[in-house]
Amino acid sequence: MSTDEIRAIELLGRVAYGRVATSMRAMPFVAPARHIVADGRVLLRLHRGLGYHRACNGAVVAYGADNFSSGSAHLWSVQFTGTAEIVEPAEEELREFGTEPEQVDGEPFDPVYMRIEPQFVTVHVLDYASETPVTRATTHSVRRHLHHVA
């Protein structure tokens, strides 16, 4: 694994949820998913009742997660792109996922698991030099940097 891939996996381990994106009947969609990282691959838990797993299985997907709502001055976003397949996770992986939701959109939660074999990984890091928000009354600007690693 490259240094960037190792960094992306380390960042992904800091949050529990992200979004999987692909297309269904030629229309793009994004769906929330719970994730873990096992053996350098991303393992997702989705609700079977939504049917998104059928569109993802055997298809190229993108899975992204970030810490944008953390309030941190050091924001990051990672994206794993690769082929997804439905899998049966090992007992250890099931434990790592933790508690399942009781319901999704009013329906009982029915888990389905997908593994993404990453073909490439992208990391974006946004560093804010100051945590002081810029307002219209502020005359100085906050230094911002966007780093892109692909």
Could you explain how this protein is built, in words?
The structure is a single chain. The protein starts with a helix and ends with a strand. A hairpin with a 2-residue loop joins strand 6 (103-104) and strand 7. It has helices at 3-12, 52-56, 91-97; strands spanning 17-24, 27-38, 41-47, 60-66, 74-87, 103-104, 107-108, 111-128, 144-149. The protein is globular, with a radius of gyration of 17 Å. The strands form two sheets. It has a six-stranded antiparallel beta barrel. It is mainly beta and 150 residues long. It is built from three helices and nine strands.
Write a brief caption for the model:
This protein has helices spanning 3-12, 52-56, 91-97, and strands spanning 17-24, 27-38, 41-47, 60-66, 74-87, 103-104, 107-108, 111-128, 144-149. The longest helix has 10 residues, at 3-12. With 150 residues, it is mainly beta.
Order of helices and strands: HEEEHEEHEEEE
Give the fraction of residues assigned to helices: 10-25%
Which descriptor suits the 3D outline? globular
Distance between the termini: 13 Å
Oligomer: single chain
- Structural class from helices and strands? mainly beta
Strand order of the largest sheet: 1-2-3-8-5-4
Number of strands: 9
How would you state the average pLDDT, rounded? 86
The biggest sheet, with number of strands, parallel, antiparallel or mixed sense and barrel status, is: 6 strands, antiparallel, barrel
Q: In terms of per-residue confidence, which ranges show pLDDT below 50 for 5 or more consecutive residues?
A: 134-148
How many helices? The count is 3
Tell me the fraction of residues in β-strands, as a range: over 45%
**CA radius of gyration:** 17 Å
